[in-house]
Recover the amino acids of this structure.
């Protein structure tokens, strides 16, 4: 397994990809990779190791890896090829794509120096990349080995990529596909050459699309040594009953991908108390489109704000509209392009995709589709008629408006699957960035029912959402007051911010000064900027910057005193900043812990009854079935408690050696509860056998509330004395900011409001996550000991409280005597494990910051964890600090 570990690490495989590679490695050790094999024996060996494989379904060993959309099937193909070559010496591969889109995508992904190159990290392919042969260039003979003529060529890997839809079109009417026809250049058909290879491996992408097609039947005659199928839906739709693949060796369904966070979370939006019967078909359709646009605009604003706050690339979302037919698609296009649809602002941002498009129109559509992820490309709405199949792997589809019924299980997953890929590769913890929204309507109920069906392929993956925002969100820029003073005067709702300087030349010098200060953050504090030596260095730096850009800056004909302007800007800067040193606090080594002693709360335990021996049980997560009839299929335990203890030790976080006493105590409590209503021992054994998983999970869930981490050491490093504030983007229901003293009646909407009116805040505007935060800001603006405060922007601190989990405090406050990090929490969350872990790391940060401050004669730091019910109109910072300061034990 050394090669498996090495390849998994080099290609950064996710857990399901790694598991697939491990299975492949085991398979090729179980059966020989030769053409002269006993197929029945090979199938028996595989079935013994993997019971889900009941038939290869081909005349050669063929296995299906069913991985959910968005998990990374193309990367897995690269891992398969790497392993088979490096571990088994396989050099010839034949990759089948279901259509032109995926065909072109695969060629790009297997081509070196492309953004999604599948072999990036495989050193053996860095200097000698595989030869790529395609359905467009194979006839020139590049795929035929001439090893005698080219010494060393035998080491090359050949990857053939073909489009099965093109082959299907060639075999119509009983014709032979072009690949089977004689090539004068090769001297035989390329098919004959490939079929004669002794180590050809066939990989079939999205194999459910063409499994029984005439083209794939012809390709099967290649008789490869191994077939590997990849699909998210291992079944063929045939009438009302899907035909499930019999050769699925590993399944990682969408429900698991959702649970593990590899894809977006689907959400279904509707209007509260909505009754479709109150609308005509035309009215209903327009309403769904308008609701889709509102959701789209809300998402767009949230994505833009996240990108600015996290300093990551901007993602431009788009909306997918599913039309009934081509005529319907054109009608929708005309509606969206009309002036009365959102003022006509989407008339140049919408395209249609359907089979009736030809020539230039089709080419333009394809180009816009391929570029739809580009933030500069204008498309925000795509109308399609069942044209967007697998392979259209965009990451910025965020809203789907289906205007036709979805009645097939495959369509349910694939229509949602088009938008599940995450733009940043993983969830980021921001709902709008991590969510795919589907606008519900009268026909879409089938998808809801399918999702809520315990046997659904997306079971438990859909969250019902309501209250579509009727007012589009706006993106609002929040600026540091120091910046407004430099570029001022700036008009605000609470009055005008006066400017520091009168002429453009001085303002240009001041802006250059703010930029130059960034190079001096290694100073122990911002006050050092006003020292004679540092000021002289700043003046020299700013003078050089102005000399380089003088010709391009308007208004610099007016004389400006650089030293005077620099000094004035620096003085203002130090008054409009709280020195937050860059101190990295990070756990050292592995964070470990164990479960503390506790008593089970039996109030929520289900009442389990004995199971009939003739009942069919289907496990909802794994879909495994057990027929309970005849003899007892379970191993009998000596003690009743052992049924539960043996289940509990299966959890990865439970160490039997450490927790054995606690486990038996908890198991004994459950056994006594069962004995209170089950008098027959046979019934007791029956319940413990058949319900051990649910009982074990119930116990484990309660154990989670009693996990205690062992003391952990931290690495603490100081790298700079202060951190400059930067502008950021946020979203709001309205560009007009609200006075922060104004009470918000609907407390749940407070996160959508931008507040202003501050005198001591270092920003001109602020957003709050809760009303207690807003009320805390009122205290900060009222208490006379507070000099300045700020809700620090993202990445201001570097406090890691568990592994790479980063803590971002709510407030930083500077008083006349000290500096405070303040966290406002719901009173019920004060003892939460995560809250306490953050507090511990923050206290260590404050201790190190205080030592730094003492060394340079500046103010010390401390950490406050404040419950929301302590934030009252009469509260003061001094009293809160006395009551809620957190210190190390």
């Amino acid at each position: 397994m050394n090669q498996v570990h090495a390849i998994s690490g080099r290609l950064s495989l996710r857990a399901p990809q790694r598991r697939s590679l491990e299975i492949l490695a085991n398979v090729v050790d179980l059966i020989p990779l030769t053409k002269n094999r006993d197929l029945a024996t090979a199938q028996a060996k595989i079935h013994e190791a993997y019971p889900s494989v009941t038939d290869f379904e081909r005349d050669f060993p063929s296995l299906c890896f069913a991985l959910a959309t968005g998990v990374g099937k193309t990367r897995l193909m690269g891992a398969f090829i790497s392993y088979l070559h490096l571990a088994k010496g396989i050099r010839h591969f034949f990759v089948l794509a279901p259509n032109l889109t995926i065909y072109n995508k695969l060629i790009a992904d297997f081509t070196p120096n492309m953004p999604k190159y599948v072999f990036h990290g495989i050193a053996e392919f860095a200097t000698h990349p595989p030869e790529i042969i395609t359905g467009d260039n194979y006839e020139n003979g590049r795929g035929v080995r001439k090893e005698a003529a080219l010494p060393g060529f035998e080491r090359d890997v050949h990857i053939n990529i073909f489009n099965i839809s093109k082959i299907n079109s060639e075999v119509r009417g009983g014709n032979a596909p072009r690949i089977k026809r004689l090539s004068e250049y090769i001297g035989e058909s390329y098919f004959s050459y490939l079929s004669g290879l002794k180590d050809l491996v066939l990989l079939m992408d999205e194999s459910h699309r063409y499994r029984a097609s005439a083209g794939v039947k012809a390709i099967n005659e290649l008789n490869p040594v191994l077939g590997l199928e990849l699909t998210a839906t291992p079944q063929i739709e045939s009438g009302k009953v899907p035909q499930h693949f019999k050769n699925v060796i590993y399944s990682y369904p969408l429900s698991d991908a959702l649970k593990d966070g590899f894809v977006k979370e689907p959400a279904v939006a509707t209007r509260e108390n909505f009754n479709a019967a109150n609308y005509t078909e035309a009215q209903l359709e327009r309403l769904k489109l308008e609701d889709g646009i509102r959701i789209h605009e809300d998402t767009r604003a949230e994505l833009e704000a996240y990108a600015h706050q996290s300093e990551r690339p901007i993602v431009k979302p788009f909306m997918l509209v599913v039309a009934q037919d081509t005529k319907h698609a054109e009608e929708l296009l005309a509606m969206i392009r009309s002036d009365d649809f959102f003022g006509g602002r989407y008339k140049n941002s919408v395209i249609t995709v359907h089979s009736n498009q030809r020539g230039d129109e089709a080419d333009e559509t394809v180009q816009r589709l391929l570029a739809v992820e580009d933030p500069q490309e204008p498309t925000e709405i795509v109308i399609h008629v069942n044209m967007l199949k697998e392979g259209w792997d965009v990451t910025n589809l965020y809203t789907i408006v289906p205007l036709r019924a979805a009645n097939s299980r495959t369509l349910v997953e694939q229509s949602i699957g088009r938008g599940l890929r995450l733009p940043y590769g993983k969830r980021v913890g921001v709902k709008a960035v991590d969510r795919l929204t589907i606008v519900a309507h009268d026909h879409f109920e089938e998808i809801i029912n399918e999702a809520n069906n315990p046997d659904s392929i997306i079971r438990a993956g859909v969250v019902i959402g309501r209250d579509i925002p009727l007012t589009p969100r706006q993106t609002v820029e929040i600026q540091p007051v120091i910046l407004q003073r430099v570029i001022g005067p700036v008009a605000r709702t609470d009055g005008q911010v006066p400017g520091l300087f009168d002429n453009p030349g001085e303002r240009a010098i001041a802006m250059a000064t703010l930029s130059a200060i960034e190079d001096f953050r290694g100073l122990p504090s911002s006050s050092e900027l006003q020292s004679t030596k540092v000021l002289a260095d700043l003046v020299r730096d700013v003078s050089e910057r102005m000399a380089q850009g003088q010709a391009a800056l308007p208004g610099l004909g007016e004389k400006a005193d650089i030293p005077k302007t620099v000094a004035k800007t620096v003085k203002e800067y130090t008054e409009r900043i709280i020195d937050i040193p860059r101190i990295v606090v990070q756990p050292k080594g592995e964070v470990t812990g164990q479960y503390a002693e506790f008593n089970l709360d039996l109030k929520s335990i289900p009442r389990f009854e004995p199971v009939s021996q003739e009942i069919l049980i289907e496990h909802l997560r794994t879909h495994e079935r057990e027929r309970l009839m005849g003899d007892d299929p379970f191993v009998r335990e000596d003690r009743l408690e052992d049924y539960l203890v043996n289940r509990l030790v299966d959890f990865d976080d439970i160490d039997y050696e450490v927790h054995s006493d606690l486990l038996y105590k908890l198991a004994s409590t459950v056994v006594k509860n069962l004995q209170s209503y089950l008098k027959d021992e046979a019934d007791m054994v029956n319940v413990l056998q058949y319900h051990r998983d649910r009982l074990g999970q119930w116990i484990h869930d309660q154990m989670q509330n009693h996990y205690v981490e062992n003391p952990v050491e931290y690495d603490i490093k100081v790298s700079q004395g202060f951190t400059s504030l930067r502008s950021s983007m946020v979203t709001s229901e309205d560009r007009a900011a609200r006075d922060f003293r104004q009470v918000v009646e609907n407390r749940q909407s407070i996160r959508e409001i931008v507040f202003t009116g501050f005198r001591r805040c270092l920003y001109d505007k602020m957003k709050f996550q809760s009303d207690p935060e807003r009320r805390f800001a009122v205290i900060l603006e009222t208490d006379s000991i507070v000099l300045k405060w700020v809700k620090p922007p993202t990445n201001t601190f570097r406090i890691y409280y568990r592994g790479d989990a980063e803590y971002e405090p709510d407030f930083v406050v500077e008083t006349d005597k000290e500096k405070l990090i303040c966290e406002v929490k719901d009173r019920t969350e004060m003892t939460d494990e995560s809250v306490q872990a953050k507090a511990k790391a923050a206290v260590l940060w404050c201790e190190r910051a205080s030592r730094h401050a003492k060394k340079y004669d500046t103010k010390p730091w401390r950490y406050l964890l404040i419950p929301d019910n302590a934030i009252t109109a009469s509260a003061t910072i001094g009293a809160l600090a006395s009551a809620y300061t957190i210190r190390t034990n």
